[in-house]
Amino acid sequence: MGRRSHIVLSALLSAALCAGCWAKTADEILQRNKKLPDYAALHKKLDDYKKSMIWIFVGNSVTQGAWHTYGQRSYEEHMAEIIRWEYKRGVGDRMGDLFINTAESGEETNRFFKKEEWQLGQFKADIVFVYLGNKVNPEKKYQEHLANIVEHIRKHGAIPVLEVPCPSPTQRKACDSVRLVADQQKCLLVDHQAYWQELCGGNGDKPEWKSNVWHPNGTGHLVMAHAIVKELGIELQGSRVLALPIAGMEPGQAGKPHTSPSPKK
Questions:
Q1: Residues with Cβ < 8 Å from 207, sequence gap 6 or more?
Q2: How do residues 140-158 score in pLDDT, each as one tens digit?
Q3: pTM
Q4: Which helix (H) or strand (E) holds 163?
Q5: Helix, strand or coil for residue 130?
Q6: What radius of gyration do the chain's Cα atoms show?
């Protein structure tokens, strides 16, 4: 049995044993991430203000943020504002960080490798977010692609972050596949589906936050930014971005699942 087949088989066996045992809240996911070496590596980079970071976002139309946001910011743009302007101001700043969105509408996992040098290799990234749902592949092949993507990101010297898609009737199996590969590869995870479900109940699918069944609108992208900062432990009290109103939520409600300590002074 080849190494790749062994990885996939191990992942499938883990899925059978762990179905339904995934972390379900932002705080649980944060605690999961804190146990990983990549979490410490990320925060070490963030605390080194003398060296700017390069943030890469790989993904499909959701990450690209075009059309369905109706001119509002995408989640990557919200993250750029939070990190480059709001993050730990007064101690140092990350204004020199670069945020590069390489996402393309219709992107699939198997196309990543054809564009790897263009989308990733040339930039010498510090951290790479991957939001690639499963459009055409059997789940086994999809998981294999994700595992390969994580390995390739690490070969480029970057920290990989896998993103579980937002709630969608066509991505339910993909959500567990992303969680499975993140556990298998011991990489950081941002679980948008779980966070939406935590806020909304049910299956988390909230029409007010979406342009159609697949794509978040401007509000949905703001909720996605909330999930990222909470689950990676970089949430800021007093953030203007995180204080923006969210349809269907009371002011501050999106911040209630858990709060992080105030920035260092």
A1: none
A2: 999 999 999 999 999 999 9
A3: 0.88
A4: strand 159-164
A5: strand
A6: 17
